[in-house]
Amino acid sequence: MSLTPSDKLPLLLAITGASGSVYGLRLLQYLIEAGQPVELMVSCAAEQVFAEELDLSLGNNPKSSLLNYLNLPLSSPLVWHNINNFGASVASGSYRTRGMAVVPCSLGSLAALSHGLSENLIHRAAAVCLKERRPLFVLVREMPFDLIQLRNMVSLTEAGAIVAAASPGFYHRPQSVADQIDFVVGRSLDQLGFDHHLFMRWKEESQPLPTTRTQAL
Fold it and tell me: Which of 82, 116, 142, 194 is most buried, judged by most C-beta within 10 A?
């Protein structure tokens, strides 16, 4: 995957406390391996999900812990933001980015984003993307939805965001859980404007190119 100069603007990535944290980590891994600068925000609830689902503890040096877990070099173009730091660059609309992805997005975060709340840096950064008319992609991992949550999705969509559910397909004949993860992450990359070969597309003749993946993912 090649990047144009404009693509060198950072992409904001938020991982919140929904089940399916592996989607966010796999997306982070792919973006870093592709040379895309990422500015990362992880909620406190997401750190709890890391421990429950992946036996991952970030400890006192979360950036290094994540890069080591994903088998990425410490020199990777990754910026870690504390979600309580409202003075961070991503809190301002004058700081240029190529948009933001919230993967996965908890229902609580969905409600906060749809109502324009700014209780932490994730909420504020998403609000900035909406007001600056930058792409905001929200991946919800939940079922079923009640009327309140559906209305929150409609509100975000009307505000300009793209809302998706983590719904793996089967036409590409997945052989493993990792294949299903890559399908969801690949469809997320589509919405963010990145080319990739994480799965075979419908009616596509060629097979997907090999991709690196940590054993844990």
Answer: 194
| Domain boundaries, given as residue ranges, for the chain | 5-192
Cα–Cα distances (Å) from 66 to 60, 113, 207, in that order, read: 11, 26, 30
Q: Which two tokens stand for residue 148?
A: 């309140």
Residue 143 CB neighbours (<10 A):
8
Tell me yes or no: is domain 5-192 CATH 3.40.50.1950.
yes
Residue entry with tokens 């504020």: 124
Cα 92 from Cα 87, distance rounded (Å): 8
Residue where the block lists tokens 């950036």: 63
For residue 190, CA distances in Å to 4, 18, 109, 217 come to 17, 22, 23, 20
pLDDT tens, position by position, 116-164: 999 999 999 999 999 999 999 999 999 999 999 999 999 999 999 999 9
Residue 40 parent element (H or E)? strand 38-42
Single pTM value for the model: 0.90
Kindly state the percentage of the chain with pLDDT values over 90.
84
Q: Which two tokens stand for residue 159?
A: 């505000």
Query: What is residue 54's three-state secondary structure?
Result: helix
